[in-house]
Amino acid sequence: MNKRADIPATLEQSAFWMPYTPNREFKKSPRMLARAEGMHYWTPEGREILDGTSGLWCVNAGHCRPKIVAAVRKQAETMDFAPTFNMGHPIAFEFADRVARVAPPGFSRVFFTNSGSESADSALKIALAYQRVRGQAHRFRLIGREKGYHGVNFGGMSVGGLVANRSMFGAGVAGVDHIRHTHDPARNAFSRGQPQHGAEFAEDLERVIALHDASTIAALIVEPVAGSAGVLVPPKGYLEKLREICTRHGILLIFDEVITGFGRLGKPFASHHFGVTPDLFTTAKGLTNGTIPMGAVFVRDEIFQAFMATSEPGIELFHGYTYSGHPMACAAGLGTLETYEDEGLLTRAAELAKYFEDAAHSMKGLPNVIDVRNIGLMAGIELAPRPGAAGKRAFEVFVKCFEQGVLIRVTADIIALSPPLIVEKPQIDRIFETLAGVLRTLE
Ligand SMILES: Cc1ncc(COP(=O)(O)O)c(C=O)c1O
Question: Is the pTM above the cut of 0.85?
Answer without folding.
Answer: yes
